[in-house]
Amino acid sequence: MITEELRQLVHQFILIDMAQRSVKVDKEYIEKYADNFKTAKLQLNLINKLLDELHQDYHNHKRLLTLNKIHVGKWKRANDTHTNYHFMLNGIEGSLMYNNVQLKREVENMLTSVFFSDSSMGTSQT
Fold first, then answer.
1. Which of 49, 80, 82, 114 has the fewest beta carbons closer than 10 A?
2. pLDDT tens for residues 28-53?
3. Cβ contacts of residue 93 below 8 Å, gap of 6+?
């Protein structure tokens, strides 16, 4: 049985992993179609800073998971609206089911929070 604290750690790791993948896809799109964006260079600089922060968070959470003997495995769509994320805790398999729309919303909220919490990325008020 997974404790609430460990479940929250797994949840945060899933959000960070999903955010990283989503931002990388967006970055590739902007790079591919840079001529269509007047601010492509600015957007790519901001995205790179965001990816750096997500990368650090990812590795910090991965380290905490390892210390707690948790391995987050693959995810699999259960159906059109839900996805299962599998993990191992002390050799015992477990899974968390997520509503895809809710998960997307949580990732967007997390990215917004990360983006605006870093004063070097957001606009500073003086």
1. 80
2. 999 999 999 899 999 999 999 999 99
3. 86, 87
